[in-house]
Specification:
The complex is a heterodimer of chains A (486) and B (479).
Chain A lengths: L7 H9 L5 H19 L2 E4 L1 H16 L10 E5 L26 H8 L3 E6 L33 H8 L5 E6 L5 H7 L2 E4 L19 E6 L2 H11 L29 E5 L9 H16 L3 E5 L7 H16 L18 H12 L2 H14 L5 H24 L2 E5 L15 H5 L6 H6 L3 E9 L2 E8 L5 H14 L12
Parallel strand pairs in A: 2-3, 7-8, 7-9
Antiparallel strand pairs in A: 1-3, 4-6, 5-6, 5-10, 9-11, 10-11
Helix pairs in contact in A: 2-3, 5-6, 7-15, 9-11, 9-12
Chain B lengths: L3 E12 L38 H13 L3 E2 L2 E2 L1 E5 L9 E5 L5 E9 L5 E13 L3 E3 L8 E3 L6 E7 L6 H17 L12 E11 L9 E6 L2 H20 L7 E6 L4 E7 L9 E2 L6 E2 L2 H9 L5 H12 L3 H7 L3 H13 L4 H19 L10 H12 L5 H14 L3 H8 L7 H14 L1 H8 L6 H11 L6 H13 L1
Parallel strand pairs in B: 12-13
Antiparallel strand pairs in B: 1-10, 1-11, 2-6, 3-16, 4-5, 4-15, 6-7, 7-10, 8-9, 11-12, 13-14
Helix pairs in contact in B: 2-3, 5-6, 7-9, 9-10, 12-14, 12-15, 14-15
The chains are: A alpha/beta (486), B alpha+beta (479).
């Protein structure tokens, strides 16, 4: 077996057994990244020099018997996380040359854990998109078929892990941006509970929905990463002060008697029948393991997409106001006055999807429309919340599809935003309610991976990862790698 | 009498005296080089987040309790969205629908001595913006973000004020209060305490409000009074000539003494307020509010009431002496040392001392004569060592030399002459030297009595006890 097909946990063990050094690993993955770029375009920045220096330091610590479980493993960061001294573009022309003067909390925590950053992954501009086509740096291609999208907005992270360009990468999820690309690329993607992982240093899209998480090959790897990333951050008022458990300790807990809820609303006519077949097969695995299946209904859930497309653009329109050409980022040439500076900087610096959402958000917050849109959306959000609470009174986890279909061709939906938005129909609910969710690969349809989504109650990451892990013990879908990257 | 009634509501921005900013750890100290006190949060860098300063909350609660308001157990920070170069995030974090303080009141004293209660609609926490600098930068503007993120308490009154004088009285009262509470340094030159005034007029008897203009940039009591008076006249002129006042924001120009239009209602921003998702709703429990209540100092009105009852001062004197916490403390320090005559202490603090401070533009805390030194002087008046008149000279010498009263009295031999025999001796000499005047006096020209007093005082260099001089002179002159 080649080194790059190892999981993060296996690589960490290999490092401690001195099977290879951190520098050797970094070089191996950096070479894979560089040779993949023209085909996949999964990275915006490759940080070879910094990576080799960090790897050498990790080797020194490993040799001294120091360091933790992640010391020396290579990872990538989604280019939405600020990295001190390394540019952070957020997939936008607006930040094409922005070099952050500080590390995001997630970045500094993973640095402290000894991980080695090899680069920063491509993404939809400002995390707005479900196909990675809105990136200023060009679309990312799906490693399973490069004519297809990898999903988004964390398409670069998902493609990179799927092609084994890195064993794990950070990602963010506002409406499905971790789980949807993980599903389309056949990897494991975990979106934690809102407040579990600090948002400090993560470029804001929609603050009440954004949550940092991880894309990795396995649930075990996601558990290892989450353990290092999670925790209260005094710099983020919405992060929750609550102990971080050892997520790996409960991975093998029995699921006998586990109550699995099947969301009636997820098995609707929009779900591709072949995908549904893979999901039903996965549910069969759980039944065999002694779990009980029962149907539950979240009557408000069908309202989640329109609700999301009011709340998220509203927050985005305000969050993105700071990109005005005054203090950092893109500035238009020769502005003739202040208004010209604003209009051209933002007109030239932002792409079409970002502008569409800023305009939508500005509209729904405007005087005379606020109550009809923003306030109503917040009320629906409450209803969706309550639906989930009721469901979790009856079941331990909810399981269903992550997306209605497998990956679609590049260009197929880019001119039809509403069809594109519907790709997140199964994932948005968890964001609106702030719940943890994971997508794991559960088989293929015409050679393309299908994702199984597991959603848990607030702070139920350990349970969600446990449920994902026991499935991965029974199956090997997570071990499949596209031929071109074997 | 005018047939018009003025209606005024004030919005006062009090800069809270926290050491760091409301949502970041930067210092709030005034006067640093531009942008030296602006960190990544103040600059609105990508990815940064606000963290609420607990001390700012505590100060707002103190204020709410002091004006007998409702302190909200649940209040919400909202974003006020607009573009301006000195507003780094493109929005200001403020409070909108649910402010931390609501329904308060403040009693003011009108010119005729009557009292009036002014309603305070709300007081909310918000961050200040930076400053745009245009001077010395040809063809460009500079931005100083040192002030960006400084905590402000915006205090909004009901439209209860009926004249510029009332508005000033209200503003002064608030100014006193925030300094008592030690939540604002009240420095108006540095912009720590500034005011916008909403002004309208209506015919007497009318119950509906007239259309109002909001006047911005009023950073002194004098400007508030002048700007309101100007604006009231402007609006009456418009209405009396058959015109209509338009709702607009106007700027006061202190050089020209006039207000001018800044923007009309149509040009006003739509601020698109919505709750700030980066900050959780602010929840305060009863225990915290009670704990803050116990930390409240004696408030100006309570102190003034105590001064009248405990020291027998008039309401006016008590009001003056409690106009600042430091002045009241100075006064009480003096009284503690001269407890037998609080009125004498009041007269000296409000008279000579206030005049001396005023002349040099000093605060009471910068007085050249300490409360102990002033008490030392008053003791010498009380025990007749010196007369009140001599005491004024001693006071001046103390002010310029920084020395105490006793040393100066000894050195200059200012001790009052109270020895009857000695005074009689001087009187005899004066009478002997002025036989003509004596004869005139004795023939009925009573007015000459003052002449003899003057001569005696002159001969004793003012040191003779005036009461004794009067008494003895009367006897001797009568013959």
């Amino acid at each position: 077996m080649s080194i790059h097909s190892s999981t993060l946990a296996e690589l960490a063990a290999g490092l401690r057994k001195k099977a290879y050094s951190s520098v050797e690993l970094a070089k191996l993955y950096l070479d894979r990244i560089e040779s993949s770029q023209s085909g996949l375009n999964a990275f915006i920045s490759i940080t070879r020099e910094e990576a080799l220096a960090a790897a050498a330091e990790a080797d020194r610590r490993l040799a001294a018997g120091e360091g933790g479980p992640l010391t020396g493993v290579p990872i990538a960061h989604k280019d939405i996380f600020c990295t001190d001294g390394v540019r952070t573009t957020c997939g936008s022309r607006m930040l094409e040359n922005f070099v952050s003067p500080y590390d995001a909390t997630v970045v500094s925590k993973l640095k402290a854990a000894g991980t080695v950053m090899v680069g920063k992954t491509n993404m939809d501009e400002f995390a707005m998109g479900s196909s990675n086509e809105s990136s200023y740096f060009g679309p990312v291609r799906n490693p399973w078929n490069t004519a297809l999208v990898p999903g988004g907005s964390s398409g670069g992270s998902a493609a990179a892990v799927a092609a084994r360009l890195v064993p794990a990468a950070t990602a963010t999820d506002t409406g499905g941006s971790i789980r949807q690309p993980a599903a389309l690329c056949g990897v494991t993607g975990l979106k934690p509970t809102y407040g579990r992982v600090s948002r400090y240093g993560m470029v804001a899209f929609a603050s009440s929905l954004d949550q940092g998480g991880v894309i990795a090959a396995t649930a075990e790897d996601a558990a290892l990463m989450l353990g290092a990333m999670a925790g209260f951050d005094p710099n983020d008022s919405t992060s929750v002060d609550r102990p971080v458990p050892d997520y790996t300790a409960t991975l093998n807990d029995s699921v006998k008697g586990l109550r699995i809820g099947l969301l009636k609303e997820f098995f609707d006519k929009g779900l591709d029948p072949s995908c549904e077949a893979r999901i039903r097969e996965a549910l069969g695995v759980y039944e065999k393991l002694g779990a009980q299946l029962r149907e539950v209904s979240l009557p408000s859930l069908p309202l989640s997409v329109p609700t999301y497309y009011v709340v998220a653009p509203a927050e985005a329109s305000s969050n993105l106001a700071r990109y005005d050409g005054v203090r950092f980022g893109y500035r238009c040439e020769n502005p003739k006055d202040l208004m010209d500076l604003y209009c051209r900087t933002r007109g030239e610096g932002f792409g079409a999807e970002v502008k569409r959402r800023i305009m939508t958000g500005t509209y729904v917050l405007s005087a005379g429309y606020y109550d009809a849109y923003y306030l109503k959306a917040q009320k629906v959000r409450q209803l969706i919340n309550r639906d989930f609470e009721r469901a979790f009174a009856e079941v331990d986890v909810l399981i269903g599809p992550t997306t209605p279909t497998p990956a679609f061709p590049i260009g197929a939906k880019i001119d039809d935003p509403v069809t594109m938005y519907l790709n997140d129909i199964y994932t948005i609910g968890a964001n609106l309610a702030g719940l943890p969710g994971v997508s794991i690969p559960c088989g293929f349809v015409q050679g393309l991976p299908v994702g199984l989504q597991i959603v848990g109650p607030h702070f139920g990451e350990a349970r969600v990862l446990n449920v994902a892990h026991v499935y991965q013990r029974e199956t090997d879908w997570h071990r499949h790698v596209p031929d071109a990257f074997k | 009498m005018s047939e018009w009634e003025t209606v005024i509501g004030l919005e006062i921005h009090a800069q809270l005296a926290t050491r760091s900013k409301i949502f970041s750890g930067s210092s709030t100290a005034y006067g640093a080089p531009p942008n030296a006190q602006a960190n990544l949060v103040d600059l609105g860098y990508p990815g940064v987040l606000p963290v609420l300063n607990a001390e700012a909350v505590r100060m707002a609660v103190k204020f709410g309790l002091a004006i007998d308001a409702t302190v909200a157990r649940h209040s919400v920070f909202a974003r006020k969205n607009y573009f301006y170069p000195d507003l780094p995030k493109g929005y200001q974090i403020s409070q909108y629908e649910l402010p931390i303080v609501a329904h308060g009141k403040l009693e003011i004293v009108l010119d005729d001595g009557a009292k009036k209660v002014i309603g305070i609609t709300r007081a909310h926490l918000e961050e200040d913006a930076g400053k745009s600098l245009h001077e010395g930068l040809p063809g460009a503007s500079g931005i100083d973000l040192n002030r960006a993120g400084t905590p402000l308490l915006e205090i909004v009154s009901e439209p209860d004020l009926r004249s510029a004088r009332e508005a000033v009285a209200y503003m002064k009262k608030l100014h006193t209060l925030v300094r008592y509470l030690e939540i604002c340094d009240g420095n108006m030159q540095e912009g720590s305490f500034r005011c916008d005034a909403n002004v309208s007029v209506r015919r007497k008897g009318e119950t509906k409000f007239g259309t109002r203009a909001e006047i911005k940039n009023l950073n002194s009591f004098r400007f508030v009074e002048k700007a309101i008076n100007y604006e009231v006249e402007r609006q009456i002129d418009i209405l009396e000539s058959g015109g209509k006042v338009i709702q607009e924001t106007r700027l006061y120009d202190p050089d020209k003494g006039e207000t001018r239009s800044m923007r009309t209602k149509e040009e006003a921003n739509d601020y698109r307020y919505f709750p700030d998702p980066d900050l959780l709703p602010l929840k305060l429990d009863d225990a915290f509010i009670e704990e803050v209540r116990t930390s409240l100092p004696e408030l100006p009105d309570q102190k003034a009431a105590r001064f009248t009852s405990q020291y027998g001062l008039s309401a006016y004197d008590a009001g003056v002496l409690t106009s600042s916490r430091e002045l009241a403390a100075y006064y009480e320090d003096v009284v503690r040392q001269v407890p037998e005559d609080p009125k004498l202490a009041a007269n000296w603090v409000m008279g000579e001392l206030a005049a001396a401070l005023n002349k040099e533009g000093l605060e009471i805390t910068e007085s050249r004569i300490s409360s102990g030194a002033l008490a030392g002087l008053l003791k010498r008046i009380r025990d007749n060592t010196i007369s009140g008149k001599i005491a004024k000279d001693v006071f001046e010498a103390m002010w310029s030399s920084g020395r105490d009263a006793d040393a100066l009295i000894e050195e200059k031999g200012l001790r009052q002459i109270t020895d009857t025999a000695a005074i009689e001796k001087v009187i005899d000499e004066v009478m002997a030297k002025n036989p003509g005047q004596l004869a005139e006096y004795r023939s009925g020209k009573d007015k000459l009595f003052g002449f003899f007093v003057g001569q005696v005082m002159k001969a004793t260099q003012g040191k003779a006890n005036p009461a004794q001089v009067n008494e003895l002179l009367k006897k001797k002159l009568a013959g």
